[in-house]
Each structure stands twice: as structure tokens, then as C-alpha cells.
Amino acid sequence: MGSSVIVQALGAVLLADFASGVVHWAEDAYARKDTPVVGKWIGEANIEHHIRPRAFVTRSWWASSWDLVLTAALVVAGAWWLKAL
Questions:
Q1: 39, 32 in Cβ contact below 8 A?
Q2: How far apart are CA 50 and CA 21, in angstroms?
Q3: Entry pTM
Q4: What is d(CA 33, CA 42) in angstroms, rounded to the nearest whole number?
């Protein structure tokens, strides 16, 4: 039983890392300031990060991470709704 939990945890970490990499790639490849819906919030910050890499750390934690918190909340709410928690 113990090794099963470890394998599941490792799989979850690897899946989360892969998903975050895909999202970061999509931001780099497609998000621009004028991208509908996410351009102002995500595209602009992503472009600034690539021009001035340390700009990310000059903001508060909330200003830099609100989109991640929202995404995590939606994933947890979806898992709860599907009774998959």
C-alpha cells in the first residue's frame, strides 16, 4: 500500500510539472497584449517577464500568483463536483 501512494504522488507531481510546462509554452507562443480575455492579465506580464526577468519578483505574491490560485480553485471545484477528491 505504501509504494502505491508513493507512485501515485510521483505521478501527480510529474503530471503537474508537465501541465505547467505546457501552459508556460502556450503563454510564450501565443499570449500577447491584445489576446482576447487573457492578454491584459497574462500576456502582458509574460512579455514583461521575458524582457525584464526580475520584474516578476518586484510584485506582491498575490499580484504574481492570482491566476494560479484561480486555476487551482477551479480544478479542485471540478474534482469535488465530479466526486474525484
A1: yes
A2: 16
A3: 0.64
A4: 8
